[in-house]
Every structure is written in structure tokens, then in C-alpha cells.
Amino acid sequence: MIQLFHVSKDYEGGVPALADLSFKIEKGEFVFVTGSSGAGKSTLLNVIFGSEQATSGQVIVDGRNYSRLPAREVPGLRRKIGFIFQDFKLINTKSVFDNVALTLRILGLGNAEIRSRVMKALTYVNLKHRANFKPLMLSGGEQQRVAVARALVKDPAILLADEPTGNLDPELALKMMQLFQEVNSRGTTVVIATHDQAMIDRMGKRTINLHGGRLTRR
Amino acid sequence: MISTTAMIYTVIDGLRGLRENIVTTVLSSLTVAFALAIFSLFIIIFANLNSFVEGMGDRTHIVAYVKDGALSTKNGVDEKAVEKVYKSVAGLAGVVSVEYISKKDAFKILKTEMKDNQALLEGVSPDILPASFEIRLAADKITAKDIRLVVESLKDKPWVEDIQHGTEWAERFGAILGFMEAAAIFLGLFLGGATIFIISNTIRLAVYARRDEIEIMRYLGAPNIYIKTPFLIEGIAEGAIGGLIALVALFVGDLVLGIYIPKELVFILDNPFSLLLLFILLLLGGLILGVVGSIFSLGRFLKV
Ligand SMILES: Nc1ncnc2c1ncn2[C@@H]1O[C@H](COP(=O)(O)OP(=O)(O)OP(=O)(O)O)[C@@H](O)[C@H]1O
Ligand SMILES: [Mg+2]
Cβ(A148)–Cβ(A71) under 8 Å? Predict the structure, then answer.
């Protein structure tokens, strides 16, 4: 589902964020990406999502190579990917409901189905009672769960999550992990960046370890 | 690709944008209205003057006044001589009718024209007015040149005292109208360009104000039209609102100007189109300005 060949990413005037990364994630896998702060976890997810371009190397997602993907085909690929951003990226002028619904409207679903799916997703993340709130009226953890609901509501082929439990208490964090496992069991390929070592140990999944943008053994 | 529900939401988004940027929306709608109102006022005046001149063309006829004593015998009108003139004039190119107005006829016409002031004519001899030939030319083919040709061929006739015709006036008026036509094109281009510039700037501001939202929509895989449509709707709405304001402004302007303009000139403010047509034209004009303005802006500021 996701393949990287000798991928490097250099930000302008910075140290290399990713250096010669090669690995493969199979369809339906559940993978953690870990490493200390600044190790390149976010950069890796962004490169897989296509919001950042690799400086060199090939990134192939769902059979498509970003270096050869025409701009007009990018939206189609993104509609298959659910991304939980480290900074959430919610639209502050829209209600929680509309933020989550937007992704389904873009997919072209009908109103009734959107309504029931959004309410279900909000129930899963314990935010049903916040449906009509604007994001800025929510706590950080609540905003994070809106981002989770938005990524999960469309049953994506790939779920990319950047520190999805960073602002949550252990109990809620565990609940989110259970949601990710559920969506994974329905066929979604899941990639989660986190430095929550306890969680990684507890889940017992494959882990990609980064250090200074390189793969390391633990 | 994009479903109807999704489309409805982008439309709603566009209208929401109008409300969020109420000040710029109002300003650019007013700009559209101003440009359309000024331009239509100009076109209306132009159209009215034009049809006035055309109407003048219908009436452009030549009057040849007969010298006192010519074409007459001691007993009165020399029917034979008149008949001869008739025939020679009727044979000229472009002439459709010739009518002889005798001194008596002329006086009769004067009398009916001065119906309300009959007293003025008391004691006046019916002889004071000259007899004349009224010559009409084919209205559809009349050009200044035709008129001149007829005039030239009449000028040297011994019985002719004087010739009156509307050529010079019509020519001068035609030149003014030609100038107005050029001015209308220039004015239209200038106002249209300025309006498009202002609308495209409004849209640019709206795009800028919602750049985060646009970025997020891109991340969610929104197709381009999904992202652009709200702004297009915004531009279209501004154009349409502007068109409607222009219509109202023209009505009010018509009423106000009507008070100050001399009665003889009021006709230049008459709406030469039907009300429905004017409505459609203004709305269409506004829509076109709005669409072009926003497309212009989206092409430049919302590149993929
Ligand atoms: N937009 C950017 N411009 C320049 N340098 C960047 C940019 N984004 C990240 N970097 C650099 O790339 C390196 C990797 O950053 P990245 O955000 O991928 O780390 P991370 O593993 O996600 O860290 P964290 O756990 O703190 O989120 C860092 O050294 C960072 O300074
Ligand atoms: Mg990060």
C-alpha cells in the first residue's frame, strides 16, 4: 500500500529531515512510527500524504508514484486517505458537525447518510454533545478528537495519524487506539506517529523507528 | 464528479462569504451598479438621440420656394408650368413625392398651425407666404449626398427663390453621434475594466481571508471546482446585486433628472427598451462582470 525507495527530504537550509528511507507497508497493516522530537515523524507522514515532496527517491501510495502523479489526480488520492494532523487543521468558522461532514460532502454523499455517519463518528469520540460548537470553543483534547472523527468518518483506505493521542488522558488515548484497531480490522491501513512508548509496547504492533531521519533498530 | 448536495453546500458557502465580507461585498456591488448605471444612461441617451435623428431623416424633405410671380399667369397659378416642374422634379433620383403648395394652401396651413392665435393673422393678406414644392425622398435610402444632388439640380431653375433642407444639421448631428458611439465603446471598456478589477480584488481578499480553509479542503481531497465555486458564487452575486441596484438607480435618476432637464429634452431619458429587457440586460451585465472578475482572480490567486 505504501512504498518508499531511498527517500530523502531536506528542508531549505536545515538538516536532512529524512535520509535514504526505504520500507514497505502492506495493505491492512497497523504500523507505528516512533522517534524523538525532531526525528522526522511528521515529515514522513507528510511525504506519504503528498503535502511535502521528497527531495529524492520514490514514494508510491496505493499504486501511484507521487513524482509522476498529475496535479489533477492528487485530490482523488487524498479522498482515500484520512489524516489526523498534529495541529488538527479544523475550520474554525464551521461547527464540529460541519467540519466532520465536509469530508463526506467532498465524497459526494447524500445528506441523510452524512448526518447519520457524522453523528456516529462523533459518538465514537465522545463528542456528540459538542456537534454544534465551533472548534475554538473546545479544549485541545476535544479538538483532537474532532480531527480523529473527521479522519475516520469516511472509512479511509489509509489512515495517517500524527500524535493522535498527544492531548488525551490515558483512558481516552486507549479508546482512540481501539477505534484505530477497529477501522484497521475493516481493512484500513493505519500509520500512527507517536512517542508514547507505553502505548506502543501495549499494542505490540510493527514499529518504524526514526533517528535523525534514518531508520534505526530499537 | 461533484454531487448536487455538495454543490448546494458550495453555493451556501459562497453566500456565507458574502455575509462575512459584508463591507467589501457592498462596495463591489455598488461599483458594479455605478458602472452599469452610468453606462446604461449613456446608452439610453445615445439610443434616443439616434432614433431622433433617424426620425429627422424621415422628415428630411426639401422645400423649394417659388419666386413671386413665377409659374403663374395673371389669373393665378399656371397649371401647365407647375405640371412641368412636377414632372422634372419627380424624375430625380430618390424622390418619392412632390407636392405643390400654393400661396393659399400655405396660408391655410399657417392658419391651422396658429389656431390659438388667430387674431395675429387678421388683416394679413394670404399672399405674404410664397408658394412652394415639398419634395420627399425615399426615407430608407436618404443620405446627405442624395439630398445634395437634388438640391444642386434645383438650384439653377429660374422659378426657384430659395431652397430649404435639413442636410447640414443632420450631418453635424450624425458626426456627434459617431463621436458618442466611440465614446460609448471607450466608456464601456473603461468602466468594465475598472469593475472587473475591483471585483477580482474583492475575490482575492476573500480567498486570502479563507486561505486556511482552502488548504484544509485541499487536504480533504476537494476537487478544484468545489474550492472555487464559492468564490465564483460570491462574484456572481456581487454582479447580480449590482445590476439590480443599477436598475433602481436608473429609475430614481430618471425621476430626479426629469425635474431639471428642459421639457423638450426629456425624451432623451425615455427607456428605449422594454422594462423587462432593461432588467435582463442589467442583470446580465452584472453577472458577466461578476463572473469575469472572479474567474480572473481565481485564475491568478487559486492556482493548483
Ligand atoms: N517546514 C519546515 N521547514 C524547515 N525545517 C523543518 C520543517 N518541518 C520540519 N523541519 C525540520 O525537520 C526535522 C524533522 O521534523 P518533524 O516535524 O518531521 O519532526 P517530528 O519527528 O515530527 O517531531 P515532533 O515529535 O516534535 O513532532 C526537524 O529538525 C525540523 O526542524
Ligand atoms: Mg511531529
Answer: no
